[in-house]
Amino acid sequence: MVEKIVCGWCGFQNVENSSSCSSCGAPLDVKNKVSSAGWCSAPRLKDFTNIEFSKSKCQVDGQIVPVAELTLNEGDAVFFEHHVMLWKDPHLRLDLMPLSGGVSRVFCGMPFIVNLATGPGRIAFSRDTTGELVVLPIRPEHEIDVREHAFLLASDTIDYSFVRIKGMANILFGGQGMYMDRFVTKGENGLLVLHGYGNVFQKQLAEGEEILLEPGAFLYKDSSVTMQVEKQPLKKSFFGGTSMALVKMTGPGRVGIQSMYVHHKA
Predict the structure, then answer these.
(1) Exposure pattern of 76-99 as b/e (b: 16+ CB <10 Å)?
(2) Residue 176: pLDDT band with limits 50, 70, 90
(3) Is the C or the N end of the chain the one with fewer CB within 10 Å?
């Protein structure tokens, strides 16, 4: 009987004696530490950690401004926003990925130019700011919602769209609302790599469990987690009463946050 090592981050079963998860890159020689409030840190990926997807590999390098370096096999492809590519092999093919709702995307502040890189060849990605890369393998028929401009790359086995969260306008400096990227697998495993500002933490909410977040801290959530605005009243003072606008998340499912607050401009 062959023993397997189960990854505490993504649940993938790795072969015996593996030091890191081949699906998400998380170290297997450390236990997941959880705060008293139930938050765990995203895995600290070691330099040159290899992550496998389809017939290709992703290698994560660096700590301050991390880089995702991909070796794409024949026919494998990933899509990404226009400005996050760092370098590529000259022969690797680049195309524009067709997107639905082009005009709406422009008015919503969402990326309207998304590129598609198709193997064989090597290509690397990075955002020009400090933070962490979060690797989220997506199982078949699973859906993840991500704050806008947070995804670094995704495999072409994932459907990509966006959705508006109503009721956020007052929070976001008079804008039209908050928009999220929506990633849904097409029936086979997919790879999604996100960039979080500062450090990234994740909490598993139980059925009906609630938590209030500062809007700028939100990074991603499972589609099973509902999201709505809630006004937190503050005590009246000499200058009168006021309130704080927060986002209420209700489980079940995962919620990811980033420690640096970055507010949407949409």
Answers:
(1) bbbbbbeebbeebeeeeeeeeeeb
(2) very low
(3) N
